[in-house]
Amino acid sequence: MKKQICCAGFGGQGALSIGKSLVEAGMAEGMEVTWAPSYGPEMRGGTANCEVVLSDKPVGSPTFLHPTELIAMNLPSLDKFEDAVEPGGIIFVNSSVVERKVKRTDVKAIYVPCDEIAEELGNKKVANMVMVGAYVEATKILKPETVTEMIENMFTGRKAKLVPMNLEAVSKGRACVE
Known about the structure:
Blueprint: E1 2-10, H1 15-28, E2 32-38, E3 47-55, E4 69-72, H2 75-81, E5 90-94, E6 108-112, H3 114-121, H4 127-139, H5 144-154, H6 163-175
Parallel strand pairs: 1-4, 4-5, 5-6
Antiparallel strand pairs: 1-3, 2-3
């Protein structure tokens, strides 16, 4: 098993955090993982992205040309990376922001209203955790309980009050997947 995931969005949408969350959960499950963020001028309003590999075997390279999955938090990310996804892959789209549908017919598209759900929960910053939930449910690559533990370990001390909202965001994201 090897997943090559491209997580992309505007700087501040949490695309890099999505990737880091997947890597943290993968490490907790004993997987071989890599996380390669892309910094630079993209972070000033353009597309910021990271490449994540989750594998049951040692990872030869942290970068790749053709992701098995794309998480597109905005339209420029979908436009930029849609064609690179492997045939048979999955494209996750933040349908709160991206109005167009995936053009390809050889991939599965999953539309998740991340921002709408986050607003319902009272904090737009949890939109990325909504997408993490959708990814976990659709791919079954990570156990939901591992993601729960990762969130509980991520938010400690004064930030512990954020755990319930983030867990609810993950749960609502999982419910978006049929």
